[in-house]
Design goal:
five-stranded mixed beta sheet, Rossmann fold, alpha+beta, binds zinc ion
């Protein structure tokens, strides 16, 4: 993982947030290649979940929402991490995580009293990870929502508005709008990619647990009790998407939740085997019954029942099947899976990101063989301008060809084109060499066929 973090910084995928001010914990910025990779992942997800599904539509809801939304969702009352404070050094620990480390099953859904009981029974085994002392306070639930004063001009924090603790609430808020303004009938789905914020006490594992992140969510609205088959189909569909990105199936596994929230029927995570940390959640798939829409109906007072257009007597609150993927987590999984170090024939090592061409930040790099031959440079620039209309391309005439190939290998560029003297005249005129990233094999291709050649 250290090698991947280092590559991310060195090659402009990920920068630590606010770095020139010494950084800010749990925040990262996507650099020039990072944002291209991120956008390609999002596009692949969006195509799979909106454009390729006849009964799904997209949404982009405002981040700020009416404060009551987060009361209805349970985030104001119950969205918290159990913390204890070291009385010697004031370091705060996540009690559930510390208990898990010593083999005691605990999670953040347990009550404060339950966690206090477990913590007290195991205090002798838990040390402060900063000062090594064992003198902790009791366990307190610390709410993770991030507050803002948007629209509150009292200066007294009287009407706190929250940044989204999860991205999906906007889908529930617009359920009625979508039913009223589209021809969709239950079962139908809504997909959204949105930001979420959590006041994590200990952000960790690079992009895995951050304070600001993006989530890609789908919610399928189904008739009550019509959940089981649809849930299995969604699980299979999501698994297949990971394989379509080129992620190795041996690095993926399913994990069923043991402690379900009271309204849920079932919950599974897709886990990825991260280097150094091991398996952890990339995406959760949840069978949530009618809880979400019922809560918003109760708190808003608006009737969110669905009327069957074929049978107006039939009214019900749809059940929800949800998928929720962490964008930073899939980004890290894609990078980890693609990261490869190979030993070349002459004994050098070659770092290659074996990204699927669909995801690679740059589809094609174009090199003139020599920098100081204007006719080669001009032809290479001409090809670059033409291909850039359809693909993300990069022009590079800096250093020898071997170095340029290495630079592109490190960012995962699947194709490198070289414009040489044969391109300009002779029996190979108007052809270029195209080099395959994974095999390093070179073939000559007609310039006229390049667009076709680069399509995934
Ligand atoms: Zn301490």
């Amino acid at each position: 993982m250290e090698d991947i973090v280092s590559l991310c910084k060195r090659r402009g995928f990920i920068y630590p947030g606010s770095e020139i001010y010494g950084g800010e914990a749990g925040l990262y910025d996507f650099g020039p290649y990072g944002v291209e990779l991120l956008n390609n992942i999002k596009q692949s997800w969006w195509r799979a979940n909106v454009h390729l599904k006849e009964n799904y539509v997209g949404l982009d809801s405002a981040m700020f929402k009416h404060p009551r939304v987060w009361e209805a969702s349970g985030h104001v009352g119950g969205f918290s991490d159990p913390l204890a404070e070291c009385k010697k050094c004031n370091n705060r620990i996540r009690v559930d995580k510390e208990l898990e480390k010593i083999g005691v099953t605990a999670d953040e859904k347990m009550s404060e009293a339950q966690l206090n009981g477990l913590f007290d029974a195991n205090r002798a085994k838990i040390k402060c990870n900063v000062c090594g002392q064992q003198d902790f306070s009791g366990v307190h639930a610390f709410n993770l929502l991030v507050k803002s004063n948007l629209g509150d001009f009292t200066g007294q924090d009287e009407r706190p508005v929250y940044l989204p603790g999860e991205a999906c609430q906007g889908i529930y808020l617009n359920f009625k709008n979508i039913v009223d303004t589209t021809r969709l009938k239950v079962p139908f789905g809504v997909a959204q990619i949105g930001k979420a914020f959590r006041n994590e006490i200990s952000p960790r594992n690079f992009l895995f647990r951050t304070r600001e992140f993006e989530q890609a969510d789908t919610q399928l609205f189904v008739k009550p009790n019509h959940n089981v088959e649809a849930y299995e189909a969604i699980k299979q569909d999501r698994w297949n998407w990971y394989l379509s990105l080129g992620i190795k199936e041996t690095n993926l596994r399913w994990k069923q939740h043991e402690n379900l929230v009271f309204y849920a029927k079932d919950a599974w995570d897709i886990e990825y085997k991260y280097p150094s940390y091991g398996y952890d959640e990339v995406e959760g798939i949840h069978d949530r019954t009618d809880y979400d829409l019922s809560q918003h109906m109760k708190f808003s007072g608006v009737d969110l029942n669905y009327t069957n257009p074929q049978n107006p007597q039939e009214k019900y609150i749809p059940w929800v099947l949800e998928t929720s993927m962490g964008m930073g987590r899939i980004f890290l999984a894609v990078l980890s899976d693609a990261y490869t170090v190979e030993v070349t024939d002459n004994g050098d090592s070659r770092t290659v990101l074996k990204l699927s061409p669909e995801l690679a930040p740059v589809r094609c790099a174009i090199f003139p063989l020599l920098k100081n031959k204007p006719e080669l440079v001009a032809k290479a620039r001409e090809i670059y301008a033409a291909l850039s209309k359809n693909f993300v391309c990069e022009f590079d005439d800096n250093g020898n060809i071997g170095k340029r190939y290495r630079r592109q290998d490190e960012i995962g560029t699947p194709y490198c084109l070289v414009v040489d003297f044969d391109t300009l005249e002779g029996d190979k005129v108007d052809t270029v060499t195209i080099r395959d990233r994974d095999t390093s094999e070179q073939t000559r291709v007609n310039i006229a066929d390049l667009n076709q050649h680069l399509v995934v």
